[in-house]
Structure formats: structure tokens, C-alpha cells
Amino acid sequence: MGWADRGIEIKTPEQIEVMRRAGLVVGRTLELLRESVRAGVTTGELDRIAEDHIRSSGAVPSFKGYSQPPFPASICASVNDEVVHGIPGDRVLADGDVISIDCGAIVDGWHGDAAITVGVGEVAPDVVELMRVTEEALWHGIAAARLGGRLTDISHAVESHVRSQPHPTGGSWGILEEYVGHGIGSAMHQPPNVPNYGRPGRGPKLVRGMALAVEPMVTLGSNRTELLPDEWTVGTTDGSWAAHFEHSFTLTPDGAWVLTALDGGEQRLKELGVPFGGS
Predict the structure, then answer these.
(1) Which of 66, 177, 41, 217 is nearest to 120 (CA)?
(2) In whole angstroms, what is the distance from residue 112 CA to residue 172 CA?
(3) Strands 98-107 and 82-84: what pairing?
């Protein structure tokens, strides 16, 4: 394993293949959770489903015991005005809620990390639009990445797509700036940070063997947040609802390969007219 400047970990093709295995565990776990979200289920029940699936797949949950204070669960479950890092527990999901689920898994020491936001039953139209815009911004960010390009090409594409979309109530979208994407590999969070805003053409050069987690977090209102008393959950200060989508990807000579997407990102990348770099 080599290291580029700025502490960026450069993976071998063989190490990327192991990350793909971890990414598939994450992707399949998130699809299972998407199917399990319904009114009446608790966030704690979703966490148990996730941990069982991750461990039965031969992987280890990335989140459980992470950092200080140690994160106590295998997924982050953030509901409505909670943006990220929500702790699963007794909260019962109700019709009309949205839940952002972040999931990580480790296979043979290598990490995968991805997130989805899911509506519970029938969700308000402005929240449906929020989820659409946020997920599309994720894919536009990945599609902007090219070998030889710069990291903030991704950031600029995420922000540009969000800003280009009309707000359903005539306001402005809130793009979180305090919380960003990141490098990923032998640790879940590594250099470089991947902001969801900024000018293109800046930051580290994108080279083969880098792996990045891109994760736009967007609200219907302000981008200002507060840390709740549990020392993990991040909520909006104005109570506006939020969405969070994430994928981990790498670049090959053929194009982008989304390690946590079940199809490697092939369909969405082709829809955006960019080459697919997976196998």
C-alpha cells in the first residue's frame, strides 16, 4: 500500500476488490433496510436487522464502538429534522416520516460506507423533492470525477446540481458545510475531506487507487445544525427536514466504479452520460 501527499491512502487493485466486497455487504444491507422501513417499526429494530445481516455476510459493522463516546449501534438512523448520526432506539416510525440510514461494514480490514433516505408511507411532496435532489446531487458529484481531475470537481458538481433545482416552497436549499464526505479504505474516515460545495479545480488530484465517500446532506431550510444531548445526533436548528445519500467509489482507467452500489453504479452513470469503470 502506497501513500500519496496529504496522507491519502492509495489502494492496490486487489485491495479495491476487497473494498468492493465490503461495499456489496453495505449495499445489500441498505436494500434490506429499505424494504423493512414501515410505520410501526422502531429504529432499534432496523439496527438489529442491519447487524444480523452484516455479520451473517462475514463482515463487521464499522460504526459499532466507533470514536468517543463509542457509537452504540451498527447503523445511524436519523429521522425527519435529524440530519446524520442518529442513534437507533425506541423511536417508532410513523406514516409521513423520513429516515436517513447510514451503514458501514468491514471485510478483511477494508471498509464500505453508504447511506440512503427512505420515506415512511406517503411523504409530503416537498420532502419527496428533497430526497430526489439530494440523491441526484450525489450521482452528479460522482459523475464529475475523472482521473487527473481535482477533488473539488466533485464538490462543485454536488452544489451546482442542488442550486439548479427549484425549491418546492420557493425558499433555498440548505447544504451542510460542517459535515462532509471523506476518503475511505483501511479506515472508515480518512483524508481527504470531500465537501459538498465549492469551486472546481482545487484540492488533491484524483488518481487511481483513491477511494472516496461522497455524501451530500441537504435540508429544506437552513444549513445550520446542532449536536443533540446524546453527543451524536445532528439536527437542524430551524427544524427543517433533511436528506442524506452516500456512496463509496473509486476511479479506474475506464471510469467511476461505485463500490457500494449493487450494480457498481452502471445504470446511473450511463444515464448521466459518463463511462462506467467497474467489472
Answers:
(1) 41
(2) 32
(3) unpaired
CB-based contacts of 5, cutoff 8 Å, min separation 6 = 204
For 139, the 3-state DSSP assignment is helix
Crossing angle for the helix pair 13-36 and 43-56, to the nearest 10 degrees: 140
Q: Which residues of 14-51 are buried (b: 16+ CB within 10 A; e: fewer)?
A: ebbebbbbbbbbbbbbbebbeeebeeebebbebbebbb
**pLDDT score for 1:** 28
Residue 101 vs residues 87, 173, 198, 202: alpha-carbon distances, Å: 10, 21, 26, 30
The ranges of the chain with pLDDT < 70 are 1-6
Supply the pLDDT for residue 6: 61
Peptide bond into 69 cis (omega under 30): yes
CA atoms of 46 and 162, how far apart (whole Å): 29
Residue 165: is it exposed, middle or buried by C-beta count within 10 angstroms (0-12/13-18/19+)? middle
Pair 127, 98: CB distance under 8 Å: yes
Q: What is the pLDDT of residues 208-221, one digit of tens each?
A: 999 999 999 999 99
Percent of residues, the chain, with pLDDT higher than 70: 98
Distance, CA of 7 to CA of 272 (rounded, Å): 31
d(CA 211, CA 188): 11
- Considering the entire predicted model, what is its pTM? 0.96
Residue 133: name the closest of 3, 15, 242 by CA: 242
Residues pairing with 251 in the sheet: 256
Of 183, 145, 153, 143, give the one whose Cα is nearest residue 10.
183
Q: Which of 52, 60, 18, 62 is nearest to 32 (CA)?
A: 52
